[in-house]
Amino acid sequence: MSEKSLEKLFERLQGEFDTEEPKNGHQERFLAKLNQNKGVVALPRKQTSWWKPLSIAASIALLCIIGVQIFTQEQTIKEQVVEIAPEVSKTEFYFASLIEEQVQELKDAKSPETARLVEDTLFQLDKLETDYANLEQELVNGGDSKIILNAMITNFQTRIDLLKEVLASIENIKNLKSYNDENFTI
Predict the structure, then answer these.
(1) pTM of the prediction?
(2) Are 37 and 20 spatial neighbours (Cβ–Cβ below 8 Å)?
């Protein structure tokens, strides 16, 4: 059909389109009349909209779960330690930044001659870090705070001393290698 003929058809049928909804119970009445003619009795099918109450219940359950998680969120061990001893966070920040700088120097100084020394040192630092985490847990659990805080500071100092010692050893290895390379003649 052409566009003009479609327009003419719609102009001719204007106002004759059925746009209203049928009255409530129309489907049941229709089925009843249809079944009377056939002599078959069919029960009208009720549409159950069980998904609406189910979706509302699921939404409420989801909101409750989120609310419980937000309001009962436990503090991390770090937050609990800072709450017990606020000076720990400042000390930890200072030592951690110093240790991180030295660890980066250590990784930068890694060479085939010092690889094993660097790997062993990093392993020892991981052990000391695990010990520090255990000390934090003991502090949170209610141990003697003065002794534990001293142990935490000692742990940081031990890490720094270890890194200084290893960096000095690496420097000695490099100096010895360059000295040997200078004295070696072909």
Answers:
(1) 0.53
(2) no
